[in-house]
Amino acid sequence: MAKEPQTQLDEELARREQDADPQADPAALEGELEEGDLEEAVEGADQAADVDLESPEEPPVETEQDPEVLALTARVEELEQTVVDAKDQQLRAAAEAQNVRRRAELDAEKARKFALEKFVKELLPVVDSLEKALEAMQDGASETHREGVSMTLKMQLDVLEKFGVEMVEPHGEPFDPQYHEAMAMVPNPEMEPNSVMEIMQRGYLLNGRLVRPAMVVVSQAAS
């Protein structure tokens, strides 16, 4: 009689453990879900996935440019072109100024070199007269006179040479029309044709520029 309450307690605990068992009967679970409901759920999930994959991307929305931005861009391009044009004009102006300066320097140099050209032309007849006077002096003239005329002529030529005047005396040289003026052509078998065989009047240069050509007699081939 003393052990009956304990047996009742054990039966109550066993009943509660059976009610709390998490394992369910498979047949009962299959009964709760019908086969058609399960297939519909699976098919609906597949269709939803296909719709998400096949949906096309929306095209980008084109936005119109702001008129103020376009105006500012055009203004910037205009200013850049203005800067380019200004630089080009500056370079051209600098080049033109340099050319003007060079021309001015050349003109000044030419003016300095050839300022005496007119004076030299006027002085050359005096030199010619002294040369002719010295040639005309024969044995009748005294040695003092010949020496005086010779010294005067030499002094005159030295002064001309000091200021850049050079004498053109092309005896025996080929005829050059740039520096010589042919007064006559004479056959001469002893000289090369077209050579200066006689000088009738000397020529002169001023700093390389011809002041007066030499008047010469030119040889030609004997016929």
Short description:
With about 220 residues, this protein is of the alpha+beta class. It contains six helices and six strands.
**Beginning-to-end CA distance, first to last residue:** 186 Å
The stretches of 5 or more residues where confidence is low (pLDDT under 50) are 1-5, 22-36, 51-55
Taken from the alpha-carbon principal axes, the silhouette is: rod-shaped
Q: How are strands sequenced across the largest beta sheet?
A: 1-4-5
Beta fraction of the residues?
5-15%
Structural Rg? 63 Å
Number of β-strand runs: 6
Secondary-structure element series: HHHHHHEEEEEE
Number of helices: 6
- Helix fraction, binned, reads 55-70%
From the helix content, strand content and strand pairing, which structural class follows?
A: alpha+beta
Largest sheet: 3 strands, antiparallel
Average predicted local confidence, pLDDT: 79
Note down, in words, how this protein is organized.
Helices cover 58% and strands 15% of the residues. It is of the alpha+beta class and 223 residues long. The strands form 2 sheets. Strands 1-4-5 form a 3-stranded antiparallel sheet. A 3-stranded mixed sheet has the order 2-6-3, with no helix packed on it. Strand 4 (203-206) and strand 5 (209-212) form a beta hairpin. Helix 5 (117-136) runs antiparallel to helix 6 (143-162). The longest helix is centred in the middle third of the chain and has 47 residues, at 67-113. 6% of the residues are buried. Mean pLDDT is 79; it is low at 1-5, 22-36 and 51-55.
